[in-house]
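Quick one: structure for this chain?
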Amino acid sequence: MLWHQATVHRDSHVYFDRRLYSVPWPHLGQTVWVRATPASVVVYLDEERLATHERCGEGRRSTQDAHLPEHRRDLRYRSIDHWFDRATVLGEPVERYVRTVYDADPVLSKLREVQAIVLELERVPVLRAQAACERAVYFGNLRASAVAKILEEGLYTLPLPAPAPLELTAPTTGSSLASSHLSCSSWTISVYVRSTTTSPWTSTNSSASATNTRPPSSPATETSRSGSRLR
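Got it. Here's what it folds into:
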């Protein structure tokens, strides 16, 4: 048998022999005695027995739900699916928001953030929780503090801004010309004429029907509007 003096920490546990053992939460900060045997660990305060645990249990922590404050007992459920299920009870907008928060960072775990958000939303009516999540999603607020602010300041009652109308800008000169050419089903064709007095190639424009005329492939073999072959 071994006796060890310990202090009840803020997480309602005492530390002994590289393991944590829970103690009823009203005794936070108090100094207690731990009596250890090969099979068990018993925690005493003066003559009162506060807790009994198996000494060789699995893991580094032995926690009994009854030792934790009521609002912290659910935090022991570390599976994210547990919190997704609780968010689903509050409606599809809440579940979608919680999943968005959890998936926001593929490296760092957002489990604690999800826990805080779900616990905050469960304190208010369902419709209020859904409106708060819709507003948080719209503005990209993925923190529990943002949800708390929306609820505290009543921002969920405000209508969401309407999507900005699509602005149509005037086309550039080139685009305008292209549009007009397409609308009349014609192309502007550049006819290159060999000149000895000016630059090697000069260009004139002519319009032809889009259904009967193809753009020239080679200036040297183009046909002028009169039908003669250029040399």
